[in-house]
F-box domain-containing protein
Amino acid sequence: MDIALSPLVSEASFYTNADDLHSTVRQATKSGNYIFPALQALQLHVDRIFILPAVLSAIHSSSLTTLSLHFEDCDTTLDKIFGTLGCSSAQHSLKTLALDALGIMDDPQVPTVTCKTLKDVARLKALQNLWLWIPKIMLDEKELPATLFTFPEGLSDLYIYTCQSDGLPLDALQHFASCCPQVKLLGLTLNAQPVLSHLPQNWLSASRLEYLNLENAPVVRPGETGKYLSALFPRMGLVQLERLSGSPTREERLQICRAMEEAAGGDMIVDGDMKSCSTPSDREARYWNVFEWV
């Protein structure tokens, strides 16, 4: 309790259970206090998610810049977490937000990212890095453009990963290119469907994307895919392919990458080597150092 109320704590990392955390929050709020008034960075591992909206509401720090949440059981919706953050004292200071729930697979209320979940991202005005590792993604393609268009102007890194095969179609990348051109690093799980729509005849991309990480990417027609990515992201430097659909051999992976590079032209590098995909790029490594205090 004393730690939570201390004005000297700027960085904190906790592994706790929801009941103990709930008790601490209740004691603090009952006496009219906020918790962690000077907090700048928090990493929290908790067994159940239901307590997180109350915890985030009780934190009254206008200097909170880094928040990493890990939970093992789901008994509320992710919408409440994003909604709470959008109304919290950190809405103008939070720069890095990471949510990790990939360990939850058997729960009937498995956490799901929808466009409704992401609508409150627009309220986080200072957000630069958004990393989501969520078991299920259900992003309505009709709603996706309007959702992405509201993302903060300073958002440069965006990861949305799932461990299931119900990710976004490759076609959805067009929405990211046109609706949030400010993003420079993008990571997505795809649904392995190779269907591509033709871009408008006068298509001109303003995307500043430099790095793309795709999980479960389709392996058919790699030349067409490479040309498509090059048109969407003309500043692309590196594309990393992970968990390619169909589990091709290493030699087949290399052939796919070369075909994509040749079709794309320019300086785009496509890396499909499983070993290198497990190692973050220099740009990724710099951002992961945000959590080096954990």
In short: The first helix runs from residue 2 to 5. The two ends are 21 Å apart (CA to CA). Residues 165-293 form one domain.
